[in-house]
Amino acid sequence: MTNFASPLRALTQWTVLVPVLAVVVLALTWGRHLAGPAVILVSVLLAGAVLAAVHHAEVVAHRVGEPFGSLVLAVAVTVIEVGLIVTLMATGGAKAATLARDTVFAAVMITCNGILGLSLLIAALRRRVAEFHAEGSGGALATVATLSTLSLVLPKFTTSEPGPEFSPFQLTFAAIASLLLYGVFVLTQTVRHRDYFLPVTDALPASTTDTESHAVPPSTRAASFSLLLLFVALVAVVGDAKTVSPTIEQVVARLGLPVSAVGVVIALLVLLPETIAAVRAARRDRVQTSINLAIGSAIASIGLTIPAIAIASIWLGGPLHLGLGPAQISLLALTFVVGTLTVVPGRATLLQGGVHLVVFSAFLVLAVSP
């Protein structure tokens, strides 16, 4: 964690300088056509701002403790994701009709297969068996399955509108249902059954030295400073993403990749820091924290993104395709079947981690070669 005892030292750290510099560059490049070197600079600052945002979310999270920490990270990442989606939809025209669907679907596959599989693999390699709470993890997975079906599967089969999209009434219902279900999940995670989302302490060896977990939490002043910098970093991420979005689309087109690859790129970029945090938790034998980060991010991704794009679609206009294709629905169903078999026992081995990573690999292959 950042040491805020010395204000001068704090102001010279990269987690402070990068978001500020990213905002300055954003102000200088807003609305301009960027040449190659400028695009590279903005892209580097964009990636740095994402990492800085999650770092400051971790500082705030360490102040409030678990499972609130995982919730802070999930919400921060989702805010970044929503900002990227809305800005790209605003500039993408008709070809952005499927961007929200592709990004949300990619986020679910990355979190519930990529991050979860990698975390279980690392934990199982360290202690042979990864242990976690089946009650909390199972409930979280059930929430993801319900949100995904309501928002990404049902539009494929409804008949009120042509194509894989909801009618305004159906979209309103999906948005309200997503918000309510997300609210119930947060209440369960942080109040009603908080113990279901805490690390399994009995699984931790006595010799474990978790310096971050046992470090003195930052002061209220330090956490407030990080909260301010988190906001600055999010502004930088959203603005810089809008600036480089034409370049992302051009690169995807030149490589001959489908338009859906843009959503995959966005999700991979946004969830990279989340992946790092989950892996770090797994290496410290805190598998439940890794699962909270992975599945919690999936829940936040759908539960907050769908309402946001429902509101945005009012002033953006144009179609909003949410329904997945047959191949994507098959992968989604496989993800939840495998995920259920993984979390129900409350224990996972190397095999479960490998199975999730194979499903994730299949998703990546189909994303670039449908």
What does it look like?
It is a single chain. The protein is mainly α. It has a single domain, classed as NCX, central ion-binding region (A middle domain of Talin 1), CATH 1.20.1420. The chain is about 75% helix and about 0% strand. It is built from 13 helices and two strands; from the N terminus they run αααααβαααααααβα. It has helices at about 5-10, 15-30, 35-65, 70-90, 100-125, 135-155, 170-190, 210-215, 220-255, 260-285, 285-315, 325-345, 350-370, and strands spanning about 130, 345-350. It has a two-stranded antiparallel sheet. Helix 10 (about 260-285) runs antiparallel to helix 11 (about 285-315). The longest helix has about 35 residues, at about 220-255. The model is unreliable at about 1-5 and about 200-210 (pLDDT under 50).
Please describe the topology of this protein.
Blueprint: H1 7-11, H2 14-29, H3 36-64, H4 68-92, H5 99-127, E1 130-131, H6 134-153, H7 168-192, H8 211-214, H9 220-254, H10 260-283, H11 287-316, H12 326-343, E2 347-348, H13 350-368
Antiparallel strand pairs: 1-2
Helix pairs in contact: 2-3, 2-9, 3-4, 3-9, 3-10, 4-9, 4-10, 4-11, 5-10, 5-11, 5-12, 5-13, 6-7, 6-11, 6-12, 7-11, 10-11, 12-13
Number of strands: 2
CATH class: Mainly Alpha
Strand content: under 5%
Number of domains: 1
Q: Distance between termini?
A: 43 Å
Q: Structural class of the secondary structure composition? A: mainly alpha
In DSSP terms, counting alpha (H) and pi (I) runs of 4 or more, how many helices? 13
As for the CATH topology, it is: A middle domain of Talin 1
CATH superfamily: NCX, central ion-binding region
**CATH architecture call:** Up-down Bundle
Question: What's the average pLDDT?
Answer: 82
How much helix is in the residues? over 70%
Order of helices and strands: HHHHHEHHHHHHHEH
Protein name: Ionic transporter y4hA
InterPro entries: Alkaline_pH_Ca-Antiporter, NaCa_Exmemb
Keywords: Membrane, Transmembrane, Transmembrane helix
Membrane topology: Multi-pass membrane protein
